[in-house]
Known about the structure:
Blueprint lengths: L2 H40 L5 H35 L1 H4 L1
Helix pairs in contact: 1-2
Amino acid sequence: MQPQDAIDIGRQALTTALLIGSPVLLAGMCVGLLIGLLQALTQIQEQTVVFVPKIVAMVVVLSLALPWLITMMVQYSTNLITAIPGNL
């Protein structure tokens, strides 16, 4: 295995992890931004108000994106395992 092969595997792993985590993180960030804006407009500064809507939004996005996420993980794992004989 060449050093470039290890770098490519690491880069591909980081890219896949970023793609898998981004839908849930973006949903949490958008809901948090909207709730923060609503709190600023209404001057309600309760910390627990943000928690429940963010969790609900993240669970909804995760349940909707789960088939795509599983496909991405299986595709990455398949590519990684099939490349093992060529890297030895």
